[in-house]
Amino acid sequence: MFRNQYDNDASTWSPQGRIFQVEYASEAVKQGSAVVGLRSKDHVVLVAAKRSPNELASYQKKIIRIDDHMGIAVAGLTSDARVLSNYLRTESIRSKMVYGRPLPVGRAVNAIGDKAQTNTQDYGRRPYGVGLLVIGQDDAGPHLYEFSPSGIVSEYFAYSIGARSQSARTYLERHFESFEDLSLKELIAQGLRALRDTLQQGKQLDTLNTSIGFVGKDAKMTVLDGEATQEYLDLLDEEDSGAMDTE
Questions:
Q1: Between helices 165-175 and 184-196, what is the axis angle to 10°?
Q2: Torsion sign, CA atoms 171, 172, 178, 181
Q3: Model's pTM, two decimal places?
Q4: Quick one: average pLDDT of 220-233?
């Protein structure tokens, strides 16, 4: 993409019907490390590959708990993600105070979609440079939504965003029909297999760079980092050992 006279702000259309500022924000999402979401009939899972700016820095947080029934995974500018996560938390608290119930997941995602769309219509604002995968459990069951900088939200059985996420989406497209009846542990293992396909050559998933989040009808929103992920990473090692034994 190259700078032109139609990309000075997010409220100007090009003659081809494009808003370049929104497209640039979508490119920021593609620069973030990959996150994968997938759901069964009882649970919905997020897995994410964390990055460290350098060897002296800690790994950036990729999965954020919003409420007992909802969480998000981020790809792109984490500062923008912090603004949206704080907004979601505020709306969740408001729903409990006003209506006495948790905020429905679909309503929450549409709220941040409306908030992001406003930035693409008012002069002087810029789109959020972050994409989100939002998971949640409500009366209708488990949900997985994708939020994009354009303000568009979509619900999925499984999806991935971030760098090299097409490899994960290819894996998910081949296997998503089998996710419906999987247990929580099996669902997380499938997510890690998809996430592994997004890594650069020579890189491996480990307790430092892997984050796992899940929620379901029998589980509150839980985020696992560090040594807590080892139990699920061992499933990948067992799979690799089994594949070698059959050769």
A1: 140
A2: positive
A3: 0.91
A4: 95
